Each structure stands twice: as C-alpha cells, then as structure tokens.
Amino acid sequence: xxxxxxxxxxxxxxxxxxxxxxxxxxxxxxxxxxxxxxxxxxxxxxxxxxxxxxxxxxxxxxxxxxxxxxxxxxxxxxxxxxxxxxxxxxxxxxxxxxxxxxxxxxxxxxxxxxxxxxxxxxxxxxxxxxxx
Length: 132
What we know:
Layout: H1 4-24, E1 33-43, E2 46-53, E3 66-70, E4 75-85, E5 88-96, E6 106-113, E7 119-126
Parallel strand pairs: 1-7
Antiparallel strand pairs: 1-2, 2-5, 3-6, 4-5, 6-7
C-alpha cells in the first residue's frame, strides 16, 4: 500500500508537469500574432481571413481559443488551423459582412489570441489570387 507522502509527491509532480506537457505539445500560454493577416474575397458579403500565430490553446469545448472582432461588426466564424508557416501555425476563418465588401478595402481587426492582450491591426481585402 502506498503511503500518503508518496501519493502527495506523485500528485504534486503530475500537477507541475501538466503545463510543461502543454508547452511540449506546442501550445503557448501567451501566443503572438505572426506577420500580417490577409483577407481574400469570396463573394460580395464573404471573405476568408488568414493569419499565422503561435499554436493557440483550445477551449474546454475543443474550439480554438481566440476572439477576432471587426470594427464594422462583421462576423467571424469557422476559425481553424490550416497549416504551418515556419514555426507558426496558419489559421483561417470565414468573415461575413452585411455591407458589400470591396477590393483593397481596409478593416480594423482586433485579435485576442489565448491569454494574450488584444492586438489591433489593419487588414486589407484582396481578390483571390491577388498578392499584397
């Protein structure tokens, strides 16, 4: 039978190793936005937002822990990882707007990634296949 001291030591060890295991899996406690986010037009009211960052943690429901808001009130849905760019993970999300989206229009977007402080950036909208 295990002693209480041994059980306590085992529990403390596992508690101390849990954050290290999360970091080993690539999840950052304070993820940073990497590079410039870009948007590509899908149709008059929809676009795809692409950005790179450190690997984002997941919520208890299994969703990516990030909140992206547009000043004009556009909705952001379907945020998911789509690949890698160097050491960063590329993410993609669908943007829906009630007003007509125009080529080269600029948007003020606020990114809150994991536990990081919110970051405001300007994001420019491009046609599919067009480069910044």
